[in-house]
Amino acid sequence: MSRRSSRLESAGYYDNNRRPLIVYRETPHRTRKGNFRAKTQITVTDSNDNGNNSSDHTMFSWKIFGFLFLLLPLCFGCGYLVSSWSSNDSKHLRELQDQLLKLKTNNLPNLALETKGARIVHDRTSEPYQTPEPVMGFIGIPIYRRPVSPTVVIQGHSSYSRTVLGLGYLVISLPHPFTISHVTLSHISKDVSPTGSISSAPKEFSVYGLHDVDKETGVYLGSFLYDQDGDSVQTFKVPDYGVFKFVKLIVKSNWGNRDYTCLYDFRIHGHLADCGH
């Protein structure tokens, strides 16, 4: 008779017939399937997580690339706008500076006014241009238009013109010895020209200061360019080369007219020699 343990009996080791529920040949060891499933599930989950992370990383990279692709033209656009604004600001600044300079030069006193005592030295001035065609005839006698006197350029208005043939020049006697600071040359603008052109306007010209009117040459004060596309009244700064009683203007070229050059107004600016300011 096999031995029975009261402890085993109380633990339900035997059945109702008092026979063991298991035999000793069986291995009382159970495989922990739950742990295997957990490990397998963890491994599979980790693998899936790695795949998801890789996919998320790729998607993030594409998003960054797309953002940069959209940002690039925006940067170029902003750069263009900034450049345009800077260009416009510079243009407006130049216009304001030109307007201020124009206002300043318009307030400069004109020393070469006939009403203030200035005179044209006629024997040192080129002859006025005579039109070759008569303006009308009377009983077969041609009548020519009288040349305009060069005095009009020192009368302070531009309603008349003094025309000179080829390379024209004139000498102005100032009422007093002056230190020359600026000169101003005037001509009608293209906007008011009947032909829309001002080919007879001076282009390159030079200015000389003279102490003695009988001398052919004087002190060179500078050469300047009258801009046919600029303002009708243009002022040019002259270096301080001393005190002069006479000023000579030489027109070296015009804007295309082969016959003559027109002078409307010539102004001289500066201050008295004995004023010291």
Put the structure in a nutshell.
The protein has 277 residues and is an alpha+beta fold. 29% of the residues lie in helices and 25% in strands. The longest helix has 74 residues, at 33-106.
Label this structure with key terms.
277 residues; Jelly Rolls; two-stranded antiparallel sheet; 25% strand; transmembrane helix; transmembrane
Number of strands: 11
Q: Helix- and strand-based class?
A: alpha+beta
Amino-to-carboxy terminus distance: 148 Å
The number of helical runs is 2
- Coarse shape: rod-shaped
| Percent of sequence in beta strands | 25-35%
Any idea of the CATH topology of the domain at 114-272?
Jelly Rolls
Largest sheet, if any? 7 strands, antiparallel
Describe it:
With 277 residues, the chain is of the alpha+beta class. The chain has a domain at 114-272: Jelly Rolls. 29% of the residues lie in helices and 25% in strands. The chain has two helices and eleven strands. The strands form three sheets. Strands 1, 5, 6, 7, 8, 9 and 11 form a seven-stranded antiparallel β-sheet that branches. A two-stranded antiparallel ribbon has the order 2-3. A two-stranded antiparallel ribbon has the order 4-10. Strand 6 (204-210) and strand 7 form a beta hairpin. The longest helix is centred in the N-terminal third of the chain and has 74 residues, at 33-106. The protein is rod-shaped, with a radius of gyration of 52 Å. Residues 38-47 have low confidence and may be disordered.
